[in-house]
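Researcher: Good morning. I'm working through a list of sequences from a screen, and I'd like to move beyond sequence-only analysis. For each chain I'm collecting a predicted structure so we can compare shapes side by side. This is the next one on the list. No need for commentary yet; just the structure.
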Amino acid sequence: MTQAPKITKSQKSRRQFLRGAGVALALPWLESVPVFAAEESKPTAAKDPNKAPVRFALVYFSNGVEPIHWWAKGAGANMELGPAAAPMLPHREDIVFLRGLYNQAAVASTSPHLGRCPNMLSGASVSLDPADIRVGTTFDQVLARHIGGQTAVPSLVLGIEPNELRLEDGLSMIYGSSISWATPTKPATKEIYPARAFDQLVGDGSGRQVDRSILDAVLKDSHSFQTRISRNDKVKLDEYLESIRDIEKRIDRASREERLEGWRPSLAKPNIDRPGDELPQDVPAHMKLMLDIMVLAFQMDKTRIATLMLNNDLSQMNFKFVEGVKGALHLDLTHNGKAAEAEAMYLRTNQFHMSQFAYLVKRLKEIDEGGSSILDNSILVGGSNLFDGDAHSAEQMPLILAGKGGGTIKGGRIIDLLDKGDDNRRACSLWLSVMDRMGVQLERFGDTSKRLENL
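Model: Good morning. Structure tokens for this chain:
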């Protein structure tokens, strides 16, 4: 009996797409093309075309909170929040206060800051070898890899402070400048210029106007590809390309009539002006611009995944713009030795950070997209990688979740995991649960295979 030919590594890597002018068109299964390597996840869940997609956003602030002021009790309209989280009170029925989530690798790290920042969204260990910058791929980038092709921008990675190249305790500050990692050795490109972030949302995600015909862009490549497949596959490919052309025609016609079959974004063109090219020098204005761009991206369905670092870890940001704060660096305010005056200013910085998150929640709650708000169809997380910044405590992270996740999350609650045992309070359980709701099911992520109970 003749043995089936072995599929070589080079055959496995043969193209799955037709390409042209920056466009990649996925092909159907063709019998004359070798089998390709399988994805590491289960198939993406089918999406109801009449329902709005679920979005995810993280608003991160560095150096933790003042613990005595970070608490919640009660539920629903009667929920009470400690002073540090007080800006979220108007939205108490839209939030889940998460107590006790942590990353084991962060707790175990001997680097009190840089071993506990870049792994917030991955749960991975951070390499402390100065010659080997390495941390796990973050879950937002895993999401982008699986569903990012459905939007012009796979994920929006934003910040306020630039990436720092200096060393801190012998380690690269790229660790403290990057909360989102595209691979274990490469952070996702963080944009701090509002104008450039805005331009990502115009056209095809690179600032280029979209060519309405995908087929025109890949036509030359398709002719070359057809010479290397069987006759039956040529017929199948022709039918596939014609179906794409038909879909394009229907989309063009529907767009001219200002309607689409099923759900469509509530905004077709930007409703804010393009920011100036310069980097804003007013920190609150800079943050607001970036939050507005996140809102615009979700409203136009240009991306469904976004992160914003309000400041870097070991931040050099001066908080003199906050009333009652006497011009001290954020790092100094958070590492205060429990001095009374410094603690009071630390609290004000916590409140300022949470007011930024509250602004995003309010904006998204006000935008209707067919009987539900964008907030209803989002999962937003605001918080930090450390708990007590002064003590570098990583035994839990201060996190607040907002939004209904497309109707899968009930707000106005506290999920307290502190007494549930370490294996039941892994932050990666939350990230697995978020991915589930966005159509990406993994058996395991980071340091756990468990989902977050009662979300």
